[in-house]
Design brief:
- It is a single chain.
- The chain has 344 residues and is an alpha/beta fold.
- It folds into two domains: 309 residues, Alpha-Beta Barrel (TIM Barrel), CATH 3.20.20; 31 residues.
- The strands form three sheets. It has an eight-stranded parallel beta barrel, surrounded by nine helices. Strands 1-2 form a two-stranded antiparallel sheet. It has a two-stranded antiparallel sheet with strand order 9-10.
- Helix 1 links the parallel strand 3 and strand 4.
- Helix 5 packs parallel to helix 6, helix 8 packs parallel to helix 9 and helix 9 crosses helix 11.
- The radius of gyration is 23 Å and the shape is globular.
- The protein binds flavin mononucleotide.
- The site of flavin mononucleotide has 22 residues, from strand 4.
Length: 344
Amino acid sequence: MSLETKYLGLKLRNPIVASAGPLQQTLAGVKSLADAGVGAIVMYSLMEEQIRAEQARQIAVEQSGADAFAEALSYFPSVPIRAPGADAASSAYLRLLENSAKAVDIPVIGSLNGATMGGWISFAKQMQDAGASALELNVYYVPGDLRIPSEEVENLHLEVLVGVKDAVSIPVAVKLAPYFSSFGEMAAQLDRHGADGLVLFNRFFQPDVDVESLQLEPTVELSTQFSGRLPRTWISALYGRVRASLAGTSGVETSEDVVKYLLAGADVVMTTSSLLKYGPSHATKLISGLEQWMLRKGFGSLDDFRGLLAVPTDVDGAAYERQGYVAALTKARSSYEDFAVSNS
Ligand SMILES: Cc1cc2nc3c(=O)[nH]c(=O)nc-3n(C[C@H](O)[C@H](O)[C@H](O)COP(=O)(O)O)c2cc1C
């Protein structure tokens, strides 16, 4: 039996991928994920603002003393003032990426969250130089300015993708949020513009409210299995209709969740929450659970069942989705019929 899969043109030993998260902040964490057997690792995201802040701090240190007595040259730090690119290249993130890529024998994917076009391009190149096998563009963009039209949001995604694709030669995936009025068309556009993979879905971290302190609480909660349903719905709608690889990220807790994503048509299945909840070795359980299920079902490879429950390519996708909605509501109405009668 083979669990091998292809993702972004890379051959992976199995479809379980550690999605961007805190475990990847140390080399030990990266190694533990590789030891647990994952097929690939996505690093946590390099945020352009953080690097810029680092640079500003460094320049401030280097220039401190500039107004001091002219002869007191020893006030200057011995490090030379470096170009911003050189600063970034020496950043902890890129060092960790480089060391990780050298330390493990599976693909290590750099994750980037840019704030400017120049930043997207420059850091993408630096990640490639640091040895990333591929890049994941974490386009986390909330159009908080209510005047921004949806087309502008879509174009921003395309511009970032095209800019980075032109600058690097390694494969590039785009991690997306589901909040587009026509998500499928956005995905198809990214596919046409050269995305090697689509990662469904990024999470928007929505603050909670502390009613005692009357403050917003910026919380990062781990997902539940339920959150896998939306990405699976879209993966099943895209399967066979786009050339890009499809990655499911959200709500993977058990090997059954992995199977569901593969049946929908995913090339790889990513998880962060379950690895944080149960530790990196949980990946080993997900892999062996998948293997056992395949044995039980008589499948010898992932291709034997991948996309089995995807939306057939010869049907009208919109009508298919509506049919599902009507069937679900009809079922729900009959399930709650007795309840409605007893409360009337
Ligand atoms: C604590 C935490 C940190 C995360 N950091 C990143 C990040 O740096 N970049 C990114 O693209 N996604 C990040 N994510 C999102 C995950 O990669 C993943 O897409 C999301 O959590 C859904 O998968 P899950 O249900 O397995 O958690 C983070 C998630 C969590 C819970």
